[in-house]
Amino acid sequence: METDRIIKTKNMKTLNQLCDEIHENAKNKGFWDSPRETGTLLMLCVSELAEAMEADRVGKHSDTTGIDELIKAGYTWDDSPVSYKSYFELDVKDAFEDELADTIIRILDLCGAHGIDIEKHIEMKMKYNETRERMHGKKY
Virtual CA dihedral for 72, 55, 48, 31, nearest 10 degrees? Predict the structure, then answer.
C-alpha cells in the first residue's frame, strides 16, 4: 500500500499543471466556445458540491476495487479503456468522491481560464490562516 502511494506521489501533477490540462480539455470539449460568465461558473462549482452532499446522504460512495485490480495487474487506462470506463461507470460515477472531483475540476478549470496561480494563492492563504485564532474566532 505504501509503495502505491509513493508511486502515485512521484507521478502527481501540480495544481497549476492540472489547471492547464483541465482547462485545455474543457476548451477541446466545447465548453469555452463562447465566453462564460464567472457567476455561472461559480454556481456550477456549488452544484457539484450539492451533488456530493446528495450522494453522501444516500450513502453512494465509490468502490475502486475493480480499477485497483486492473492497475495491480499492470493495465493502464490506455491499455484497457473499455474496462476502466465500465468499472468507473459502475463503481465510481456519481459517488460522493466523484462529485468532489467534479467540484475541484470545475474550480481548476475556472483558475485555468483566468490564469490564476492557485498554488500561490493556497500557500498564501495557508500561511495567513496560521496567524488566525482558534476557529477564527467563530463558534463553527
Answer: 60
Residue 114 confidence (pLDDT) = 97
User: Taking CA 25 as the corner, what is the angle to CA 19 and CA 31, rounded to the nearest 5 degrees?
Assistant: 105
Low-confidence ranges of the chain (pLDDT < 50): 3, 6-7
Q: What is the spatial distance between Cα 53 and Cα 125, in angstroms, rounded to a whole number?
A: 25
Amino acid occupying residue 58: V
Residue 59, C-alpha cell as written in the block: 450513502
Sign of CA dihedral 107, 88, 50, 96: negative
Nearest Cα neighbor of 103 from 54, 43, 17 is: 43
The end-to-end CA distance of the chain, in Å, is 35
